[in-house]
Amino acid sequence: MNNKIALYGSAKKLTQIEGVLTKLFNKNNIPFEIHLISDSEQFLREFLIKNDFRLFMVSEKGTVSYMMKMYKNFDQQTTRYACGKMNFPLTQKELSDHMLEAVKSSHSCPYGIYAAKNAKMSRLIQHSDIECIYRDNTKSVFFLQSGETMEVPDSISRIFAELDANYFIKCSKGVIVNFFNIEQVSDDYKTILTKSGAEIPMSRIGEKRYFKSLSLSIAGVNVFNY
User: Fold this and answer.
1) Angstrom distances, CA of residue 104 to CA of 82, 97, 166, 168, 173
2) What's the pLDDT tens digit per position in 110-153?
3) What angle do CA 46, 50, 56 make, to 5 degrees?
């Protein structure tokens, strides 16, 4: 499935925006199809009313306005549009930040419960409450939104197998993060900041998994080649 994108503006601005989109999507193996339009009537008549376009972008007066079609609850049945405005010239970081903000404003973590157990207690933890899980020597530690932690003897691999791998990301070795509890990502994509303020390292493979979850949240399907 290709992500169809319609861009409207002057030739010079369209070239800059197209370059940023191409680098970001190619870097993360996201298939896409860009349509460049310099005629406003054609943009409205032929592209804006078509329902198979995922993203519309208009560049004028030093800004880039966008309207992004998103599937709510990942079922491809209910749709909404996220709108916003970015600075021109566009950057990959600003684009990905706006995509994340759009997801955060329209989705919540898919419902699920993890049965955590150690020698002292058993506890049912809702997926939405989990910020991250990390390996510490011989135990795995759940870090929750409330700031609480719980240690379990289960391996990271065993825990990950029981979670939704689309939205719980192995962001680096021995660390799992809940995509829906990510507040922001650093400019170099090497660090994740969770909603509680915890900083988590992200590897190059973790970066790809992050963009996979971002794409799944917007499109409702896996549009990656892996």
Assistant:
1) 11, 11, 16, 15, 25
2) 668 899 999 999 999 999 899 999 999 999 999 998 889 999 99
3) 85
Residue in the structure block whose two tokens are 């979850």: 213
10 Å CB burial of residue 91 (0-12, 13-18, 19+) is middle
pLDDT tens digits, 18-74: 999 999 888 877 788 999 999 988 888 888 777 688 899 999 889 999 998 876 555
| Residue where one domain finishes, among candidates 69, 84, 106 | 106
Q: What domain range is 47 assigned to?
A: 3-106
> DSSP H helical segments within the chain, as ranges?
11-27, 40-42, 92-106, 156-162, 204-219
Is residue 225 assigned to a domain? no
Please identify, among 64, 91, 106, the residue that sits at the C-terminal boundary of a domain: 106
Burial pattern 121-141, b for ≥16 Cβ within 10 A else e, equals eeeebebbbbbbbbbeeeebe
